[in-house]
Design goal:
Layout lengths: L1 H47 L6 H25 L5 H11 L6 H9 L10 H16 L10 H23 L1 H11 L11 E4 L5 E2 L4 E8 L8 E7 L4 E7 L5 E7 L2 E4 L1 E5 L6 E7 L6 E7 L2 E2 L4 E3 L1 E2 L4 E9 L13 E4 L4 E3 L4 E8 L3 E10 L4 E4 L1 E2 L5 E7 L4 E10 L10 E6 L6 E4 L23 E2 L3 E9 L4 E10 L5 E4 L7 H4 L2 E2 L4 E2 L8 E5 L13 E9 L4 E3 L5 E3 L5 E10 H21 L5 H9 L6 H12 L5 H10 L29 E2 L3 E6 L1 H33 L1
Parallel strand pairs: 2-13, 16-23, 25-37
Antiparallel strand pairs: 1-3, 3-9, 4-7, 4-10, 5-6, 8-9, 10-11, 10-12, 14-15, 14-17, 17-21, 18-19, 18-22, 20-21, 22-23, 24-26, 26-32, 27-28, 27-35, 29-30, 31-32, 33-34, 35-36, 35-37
Helix pairs in contact: 1-2, 1-6, 1-7, 3-4, 4-5, 6-7, 9-10, 9-12, 11-12
Length: 719
């Protein structure tokens, strides 16, 4: 019996193996389908989503696969069953007819618990022996059907080929997708790699351009897009109040998308740049980008930085150094609202306050020529900038430009004007002829002697006022007899004790304690505030010019004394401090040049030259630098200076329009003096002079009578 059981069990084991192979192939097929489906979904989701496949979706796919695989295994285990020995014996009897039911009968009669009561043991033994004999000549296991192995192989082959093809064609992607099914943090490789290349921050309120670096096959036909998410998230809940009192909640999507365009290769040629234009904004934002099948791994955070703003501009005008009588101080005047109105030799100080710290500030001078830039000095806080500069020719305005630490400049630099006044000589006015003492407070008409003639041995009372914004340096009387040559007589400055002489009366040219016979040749009016402005901007005086010593020169050159019928013409000339400084600078520079050329001692003269407060022109600055460096080698610079400081051409004394000369003709040169109008005095006899005096007395008496009559008429009307 044992040989029969052994063969049947071998056959049964082979049947189970064939059935199990089919089940394994089915489970493998289900597993491949599940993995392929999950990887495909993961790949497509990751490819088309801005944020990639979310973890919850990957977790759900992994759990689903595990459930599917577990179900397939359970089903396969349950479906794998081996046939019973009896059924196998029946199949053997059907295959081998000589058994004639002996094999099944043998199994049934020899099994444990078989009901053999009443049966012949000899018969059971005979049947068993016959079955053993027949079985010994057969291999029952060969009756197992091997087609199921082929079927299982046919099912496993596509699985193996598909897996092999995926690994061979895209090993990195396949590996990454499989690892992602294990919930590992692995990125799916793409053909295109995208990374942020924008350098922030961006200027607030300006249109901006974000840039990404793209590595891989990408050109101007490759689609790209950038997603911008403002600070605070993608969506925001807002409460809206409608007009009828209804209040609604709704969500607002704060994200925005903008197309990316190809901007050319990178500097090293290994990648490409793509850019997107974004509208003006002020709030920080995050952005990520997609180009082709690639996207940025993480959103880039960018912020806005406000541009610097010049909040205040102050300016001061620095008068030339020569305006100070001592030549040391530069008096400062505030310019209203930063608008500059000054003389050519003035300097300007500009101070600007900025809304934030800056690393650079400049004053940009504009005008007929190209813009000129003056670097400003920053204070320790870097919020206040200051610059002091001379005004170049042709400049008519300035603006303040600042740059912060992010190289952001102010968009609307404040602009101010610069008006350079014409370089005019002093103004000189002859006062009315008044034989009036300084202490007199009566009507000036009672002392008016306009047109008074001269008598031989008499005198001319000359009273004048002079003004110059550059300060009066000296004055002189210029006169001539008939049409003879002009002669200059310098007026001496006077120094007085104001408490003793009283106030100065400019209309008379004298002080309160002076009478009409005293001289006050040249008085420089002191400044009301010596700390704020220099003295001597206004001057005046009165001089009794004696005619006894005057002589006239005939055409043949002979000189004779005045006679009745001669005419004396006079005027006042005033010289400002610039004129004096120019003359002094020309003299000192000429002497220094002579010492250099003759190998003389130059140290003292060089110090004297450097102390002369000449205007700060480029020629003067070059000469000063050359002398300060080495006086022995400063000859070329001094020659250029002397050429620039050439004397003025004399103005004809008959010229009354002194301002007709163009200011450009005087740039870098000395200035002409300012002259008053001329007056003529005729020499008459004593009799004619007395007649003139009587006529003047009658005229004054007649005027007083008319005034009394007018007062009476107006008085009656008033009553």
């Amino acid at each position: 019996m044992t040989p029969i059981l052994r063969q049947l069990k071998s056959w049964q084991a082979r049947e189970w193996l064939y059935s199990a192979s089919v089940a394994v192939a089915a489970v493998a097929l289900v597993a491949l389908f599940g993995v392929a489906l999950a990887c495909t979904v993961d790949n497509l989701w990751d490819l088309n989503s801005w944020d990639g496949t979310p973890f919850w979706a990957r977790l759900l796919m992994t759990v689903g696969q595990l459930a599917l695989y577990l179900g397939a295994v359970v089903f396969a285990v349950r479906s794998v069953k081996a046939p019973s020995l009896v059924s196998l014996a029946s199949r053997a009897e059907a295959e081998f007819t000589e058994y004639d039911h002996r094999l099944v009968t043998t199994l049934q009669l020899n099994r444990e618990g078989a009901r053999t009561a009443g049966m012949s043991k000899e018969l059971i033994s005979a049947v068993t022996d016959e079955a053993l004999g027949l079985t010994a000549r057969r291999k029952l296991a060969s009756l197992a059907d091997p087609k199921r192995l082929l079927w299982a192989g046919g099912m496993l082959l596509p699985v193996a080929l598909a897996a092999l093809a995926a690994l061979l064609l895209s090993p990195q992607t396949s590996t990454a997708l499989l690892l992602r099914q294990l919930l590992l943090p692995v990125d799916i490789p793409r053909n295109v790699a995208v990374e942020n290349a924008s350098e922030g921050p961006f200027p607030a309120g300006d249109p901006i351009q974000v840039r990404v670096r793209v590595t891989g096959p990408a050109d101007d036909r490759t689609p790209g897009e950038v997603r911008v998410t403002p600070e605070g998230g993608e969506r925001a809940f807002k409460l809206v109040d409608l007009s009828d009192g209804v209040r609604l909640f709704h969500t607002v999507d704060g994200t925005a998308r903008y197309p990316l365009r190809y901007a050319g290769p990178t500097e090293d040629g290994t990648a490409s740049y793509f850019v997107a234009d974004l509208p003006p904004a002020t709030e920080p934002f995050r952005f990520d980008a997609k180009v082709g099948d690639g996207r940025t791994k993480a959103a880039a955070e960018l912020r806005y930085e406000p541009r610097p703003v010049v909040t205040k501009v102050d300016a001061w005008i620095l008068a030339p150094a020569y305006v100070d009588p001592d030549g040391q101080r530069r008096f400062t005047t505030a310019a209203k609202q930063g608008e500059i109105v000054c003389h050519p030799d003035c300097a300007v100080k500009v101070q600007a306050e900025v809304s934030k710290t800056v690393k650079r500030a400049e004053v940009v001078l504009s005008g007929r020529a190209a813009d000129q830039r003056v670097r400003m000095t920053l204070d320790p806080t870097r919020t206040t900038a200051t610059a002091t500069f001379a005004i170049p020719p042709g400049v008519n305005g300035y603006r303040v430009e600042v740059t912060d630490d992010y190289n952001f400049a102010n968009l609307s630099p404040p602009r101010r004007g610069i008006s350079v006044l014409p370089d005019r000589p002093p103004t000189v006015v002859l006062n009315d002829e008044l034989l009036m003492p300084g202490w007199e407070t009566g009507p000036p008409d009672d002392y008016e002697v306009r047109g008074m003639p001269l008598v031989l041995g008499g005198q001319i009372q000359i009273s004048y006022q002079a003004r110059s914004s550059l300060g009066i340096a000296r004055a002189a009387v210029i006169y001539r007899v008939n049409d003879g040559p002009w002669t200059l007589f310098s007026l001496k400055p006077v120094s007085v004790d104001a408490e003793k002489v009283g106030r100065f009366r400019p209309e008379l040219g004298v002080f309160e304690t002076y009478d009409e016979t005293k001289n006050n040749e040249l008085y420089l009016v002191p400044a009301s505030d010596p700390e704020a402005e220099p003295g001597g901007l206004v001057a005046g005086g009165r001089y009794n010019f004696l005619t006894a010593a005057l002589v006239k020169t005939a055409k043949d050159g002979t000189a004779s004394k005045l006679a009745v019928g001669d005419r004396v013409e006079f005027r006042i000339a005033a010289y400002d401090r610039k004129h004096e400084v120019m003359e002094r600078g020309r003299a000192v520079a000429g002497e220094l040049l002579r010492l250099i050329e003759t190998n003389g001692a130059t140290a003292d003269k060089a110090k004297e030259f450097l102390a002369v407060p000449l205007p700060e022109t480029p020629v003067v600055q070059a000469a000063r630098e050359a002398v300060a460096a080495n006086p022995k080698t400063a000859a070329p610079a001094l020659k250029d200076l002397l050429a620039a400081l050439k004397p003025e051409q004399p103005i004809a004394m008959t010229d009354t329009d002194l301002a007709a000369r163009p200011a450009d003709e005087r740039v870098g040169q000395g200035r002409p003096a300012g002259y008053s109008e001329s007056r003529l005095k005729a020499v008459v006899t004593d009799t004619a002079f007395k007649q003139w005096q009587e006529q003047q007395a009658r005229s004054r008496e007649r005027l007083r009578e008319l005034e009394k009559a007018q007062q009476g008429v107006f008085g009656e009307k008033k009553r």
